[in-house]
Specification:
The complex is a heterodimer of chains A (566) and B (278). Chain A is α/β, with parallel strands linked by helices and 566 residues long. Helix content of chain A is 33%, strand content 24%. Chain A has three domains: 1-104 and 187-269, Rossmann fold (3-Layer(aba) Sandwich), CATH 3.40.50.300; 114-186, no CATH class; 290-299 and 309-387 and 453-537, P-loop containing nucleotide triphosphate hydrolases (Rossmann fold), CATH 3.40.50. The model of chain B is unreliable at 6-14 (pLDDT under 50). Chain B contains ten helices and one strand. The chains are: A alpha/beta (566), B mainly alpha (278). Strand 4 (75-78) of chain A pairs antiparallel with strand 1 of chain B.
């Protein structure tokens, strides 16, 4: 399938790729894997095209293949690759995609933290490309060009940045620099590989705006790869939806969002967090049953020679009722993680108290162990929070063992029961983490957190490492578990869509302080603090026809949450 | 339409399994366990008429100044050299894992004190430390093992500490602490098994050094005493006749060098497979 070109603004196709195949040959008894199977995509000049798909769908591989950047072991072939000729404006056949690198196609890599050489100052990173593309050797000219380039992508104080190292800059600044670097060779197509997935929502918005500006100002085309259909829907003129290496649907964005034809696209659209069943308004029991509370929690770091102490958390008070979900939101560096560590007793506060059932928690190993029994933590990355060499059944049973609950037999029974609660088959207990998918692993982590029947589960970005459909299923599970077990959740998330869908109360943090603290509805509909408003404005809005009556009801996500290929 | 295929570049060759080294170590192991079976003659039997014979079919390694068969003496000496080295390795392993674990996991004062001590050891030449210990404690096999083992403690303890730090920073260790698992369990179940690989690989490399050190000590006269054979004292005894009978020092020396190289090779392969290169 090829994206149709809008005849009104047709300046012709800039890039046309047909029948791309990328396969990894089988090794040591494994079958060969086909990463991309027969992909075709056309990028019209001056337009943005987005490839949307979940992890493993082959979207990043496609970008790499376009530049000949796939690993040596990969077998890459295509039927046709054409790029617009600079002089005639017609399409010219390209045999080796490596010829496109830099001057025709610029790549903005995925990870702004790791994509800049940490030992090179920003100026030197540019100078290298100036030498390579423009044959510039003079320092002054390279400097002048770099300053201009940094200015054009909105990096403040460009003169100062030249002498800085990547680690001295923020994620957003680094992403801007990567964009400026990709533009040095004056390409006509920018490839953006998940350019914002590691950034805060507000920064994400600014970086995406920058892509739009650059595109308009220089008449570039953008090929954006993202897992977030909301971002793609907001920014791209054409969508290409990929799944398991194949294109399932492609066409103008509006058409796809309004009337998705493929069931998978429909599933992507129906698994947005906003489509979770509405939560009933939370009413505290009377008398109120507060399980976890904090008063004036404060923790600061630093304060070495000549350094100011930084308040990571300043005077935070909160209450968490039985069966309630309280969400903590804020940009990175807002103090969310520190607050979470204080509330779970992993760190001691400088001032203030944490109260469990109205009683102050005491220091010491024994008190800590008793506390651990009631308050459990689920981490962001389940693959890292589970010991890779333990079968998952053993991992689930370990908290029971640690607190000497029951014997071997009753523990095994409890593990089966817990697996059932998180909707996993009992035979998974014998598998190792590497044999499970991300969604399954997070379910195992939840089962482990439930093992001791805690009153509070602290969820640290519990779904941000997972694909959208898996996220949806997991959030639904968490809701069901809460209803059944009346466990309270303290949720830390940067995803406001998730927060809105599952939280009863929201605490907005900014630079360690509470900016706003109110019921979810009122925070989202009538934010009082300007900071909250900025956060909310940054959420990519997907205008979907509502209600989506023609959409099929939510199907079970059998494949997306299935067993990972070994 | 013709399909364009981008040619794959050839992949890096894999590290080979050290077959020759394993054979050498297998033979040496057999010699240590069953010297009586492998040795053609009695290592103590003297035959004055056969003094200082060069290597021949009858005496593979020739004979010494008392007419003893050198090949048999080398085979019988294996046990002494190897068993002391292994004992030294066990001692070094135990002590350094204890030091490294405590320093890495508990940190703070324990870390500073233990690593300070290790640094002092690291600053002294290892042979000097070994000599000091042997002259202080005497020359029994156990003392020799301690003397040789101590020299390897600094490196092993440092690597153990680094590995423990690395593994302790992993989320699953924090999670285990988080749900209240007792500390010794966290260490034994979650930290040590994941820290083991690089320590084992380094241990194999250290064993090679230890075999060399054991022989060095007995070469200097602090180890196995004549007439009991041991590689180091065989080499030492042959020095007096080096001008006329080269085989007395050269052949035991070659055996020693071969074993050390083979151990080294196996240790390197172990390390590479731990790093995921094989």
């Amino acid at each position: 399938m090829t994206a149709a070109i809008d005849p009104a603004t047709d300046r012709g196709a800039l890039l046309r790729l047909e029948g791309l195949k990328v396969a990894y040959p089988g090794q040591r008894g494994r079958d060969a894997t086909v990463a991309v199977d027969g992909l075709s995509v056309t990028v019209p000049a001056g337009r943005a095209v987005a490839i949307v798909g979940e992890s493993g769908s082959g979207k990043s591989t496609t970008l790499h293949a376009l530049l000949g950047l796939t690993p040596r072991t990969a077998d890459v072939s295509f039927e046709r690759l054409e790029f617009q000729d600079g002089t005639t404006g017609g399409l010219r056949r390209i045999d080796d995609p490596r010829a496109l690198r830099g001057r025709s196609v610029g790549l903005v890599p995925q990870d702004p933290v790791r994509s800049l050489d940490p030992l090179m100052r920003i100026g030197a990173q540019f100078a290298e490309l100036h030498r390579h593309f423009l044959g510039l050797t003079g320092r002054e000219e390279s400097r002048a060009r770099t300053v201009a380039a940094l200015e054009s992508v909105g990096v403040d104080r460009p003169g100062l940045r030249l002498g800085q190292y990547p680690h001295e800059l923020s994620g957003g600044q680094r992403q801007r620099i990567l964009i400026a670097l990709a533009l040095v060779g004056e390409p006509r197509l920018l490839l953006a590989d998940e350019p914002t997935s590691n950034l805060d929502t507000t920064v994400q918005r600014r970086v995406l705006d920058l892509f739009d500006e650059v595109r308009a100002a220089r008449g570039l085309s953008v090929l954006l790869v993202t897992h977030d259909i909301a971002v793609a829907g907001e920014r791209a003129d054409h969508l290409v939806v990929m799944r398991a290496g194949r294109v399932v649907e492609s066409g103008p964005t509006r058409d796809i969002l309004d009337a998705p034809k493929d069931p998978y696209t429909r599933q992507l659209l129906t698994s947005l967090p906003s489509r979770l069943p509405a939560r009933p308004v939370f009413r505290a029991a009377s008398p109120p049953r507060v399980v976890l509370a904090s008063h004036g929690l404060t923790k600061s770091f630093g304060g070495g020679k000549g350094q100011e102490r930084i308040d990571a958390v300043r005077d935070v008070s909160l209450t968490l009722h039985r069966g309630q979900t309280v969400a903590v939101v804020g940009e990175s560096g807002a103090g969310k993680s520190t607050l979470l560590r204080l509330l779970t007793g992993l760190d001691r506060p400088d001032a203030g108290t944490v109260l469990l059932d109205g009683e102050e928690t005491r220091p010491g190993r024994r008190a800590r162990t008793a506390f651990a029994r009631r308050v459990q933590l689920v981490y962001q990355n389940p693959a890292r929070s589970l010991n890779p060499s333990f079968p998952v059944g053993r991992a689930i049973a370990e908290p029971l063992e640690a607190h000497r609950v029951g014997g071997a037999k009753s523990r095994a029974e409890r593990v089966r029961d817990l697996l059932e609660q998180v909707e996993l088959p009992a035979e998974l207990a014998a598998r190792r983490p590497s044999q499970l998918s991300g969604g399954q692993l997070q379910r195992v982590a939840i089962a482990r957190a439930l093992a001791l029947d805690p009153d509070v589960i602290v969820l640290d970005e519990p779904v941000s490492a997972l694909d959208q459909a898996v996220q949806f299923a997991l959030l639904k599970l968490l809701g069901d578990l809460q209803e059944r077990l009346q466990v309270a959740y303290l949720l830390v998330s940067h995803d406001l869509g998730v927060v809105r869908a599952v939280a009863d109360e929201v605490i907005v943090m900014h630079r360690g302080r509470v900016e706003e603290q109110a019921a979810t509805r009122s925070v989202f509909e009538a934010p009082t603090s300007p900071h909250t408003r900025a956060l909310l404005d940054a959420v990519p809005a997907l205008q979907l026809p509502t209600p989506l009556v023609h959409l099929a009801p939510l199907a079970p996500f059998s494949t997306s949450d299935g067993k990972k290929q070994p | 339409m013709t399909a364009t295929t981008v040619p794959p570049t050839r992949s890096r060759s894999r590290t080979s399994v050290p077959g020759l080294s394993l054979t050498v170590l297998g033979l040496v192991g057999a010699a240590a366990l069953l010297p009586g079976v492998l040795a053609p003659r009695d290592p103590y039997a003297q035959d004055v008429s056969e003094r200082l014979r060069p290597p021949s079919a009858e005496h593979l390694f020739g004979t010494d100044e008392l007419g003893r068969d050198l090949f048999s003496r080398v085979i019988h000496g294996t046990q002494a050299s190897l068993s002391i080295a292994l004992l030294a390795l066990a001692f070094a392993f135990g002590l350094s894992v204890l030091i490294g674990l405590t320093a890495g996991y508990f940190g703070g004062t324990a870390d500073r004190v233990l690593m300070g001590g290790v640094d002092v050891l690291l600053a002294l030449p290892s042979l000097l430390i070994s000599l000091l210990i042997v002259s202080g404690l005497g020359t029994g096999p156990l003392n020799l093992a301690v003397a040789v083992g101590v020299a390897s403690v600094p490196t092993l303890a440092r690597v153990t500490r680094a590995e423990v730090l690395r593994v302790s920073a992993q989320t699953f260790v924090e999670a285990a602490n988080g749900y209240g698992l007792a500390r010794h369990r966290v260490l034994g179940r979650h930290v040590l098994p994941h820290a083991r690989g690089p320590i084992t690989a380094l241990g194999a490399l250290e064993l090679a050094t230890m075999v060399l050190s054991v022989s060095a000590l007995s070469f200097l006269g602090y180890g196995t005493q004549p007439p009991d054979p041991e590689w180091g004292n065989l080499i030492a005894a042959g020095r007096d006749y080096f001008a006329t009978s080269w085989w007395l020092t050269t052949l035991p020396g070659a055996v020693l060098a071969g074993v050390v190289l083979a151990l080294h090779r196996v240790g390197r392969a172990l390390g590479a497979s731990e790093a995921g290169l094989v």
